[in-house]
Amino acid sequence: xxxxxxxxxxxxxxxxxxxxxxxxxxxxxxxxxxxxxxxxxxxxxxxxxxxxxxxxxxxxxxxxxxxxxxxxxxxxxxxxxxxxxxxxxxxxxxxxxxxxxxxxxxxxxxxxxxxxxxxxxxxxxxxxxxxxxxxxxxxxxxxxxxxxxxxxxxxxxxxxxxxxxxxxxxxxxxxxxxxxxxxxxxxxxxxxxxxxxxxxxxxxxxxxxxxxxxxxxxxxxxxxxxxxxxxxxxxxxxxxxxxxxxxxxxxxxxxxxxxxxxxxxxxxxxxxxxxxxxxxxxxxxxxxxxxxxxxxx
Length: 297
Hints:
- This protein is α/β, with parallel strands linked by helices and 297 residues long.
- 18% of the residues lie in helices and 32% in strands.
- The chain has five helices and 17 strands.
- It has a seven-stranded mixed beta sheet, sandwiched between helices. The protein has a six-stranded antiparallel β-barrel with strand order 1-2-5-4-3-6.
- Strand 11, helix 5 and strand 12 form a beta-alpha-beta unit.
- The longest helix has 14 residues.
């Protein structure tokens, strides 16, 4: 079960274009697993002089350590793209941040050793690094492919080399690794590795490309989706997306509770655009349209 705690900022460092935040968060780190996330309140703490935002900011957990200097620690990586994340980027050691976590459904680990490929885009690679360590501990050969627009937007290449058999890096501008997108090199990575399972986290467009390739290749795929999550625990319904259930029916599913990790072949990627997810006509509970609605008038 998630807990709500007032966490203390231990450190905040720049890593390329990102910020690496470490929090002392008792009770959160102990139960965190790769794929879990935390919801951080922005502003509104005593003495900070900042009016609180109504919604929290959700961040995948990069690392969670049950014991630290004084208590368990949780680390997240983020880009300061908006007012809320800029506020977080201005925190200093000993500042306080209200935290809820761990939240969501984490990655499912294999019951026996299998060859795994981990695919990350930008700071979406962060939760995959702890996952790589867990998989290696279970005897799974791990191959990692990470990509970003530029070298400054890559994250985790050095960390990945500690746990992976091989690491492939791409940048769209060619400033590091191979030029192109990480999905461009993935077919070759799958062939060379003999992958049996793919884990992915990053932008939705990348996840769609990875999931579609996994389906055509017959490889099991799990994806941690990036959807806007205002509450983080299933109340506000801002993070819903169409997902096919085990009964073959599509439902608008909460990414923060039933996800953020889903099977890649069960997400209806064709209904997800840059402004969020649309409701497919065949979705359970979708509004009736056409002559059958309203008696044909």
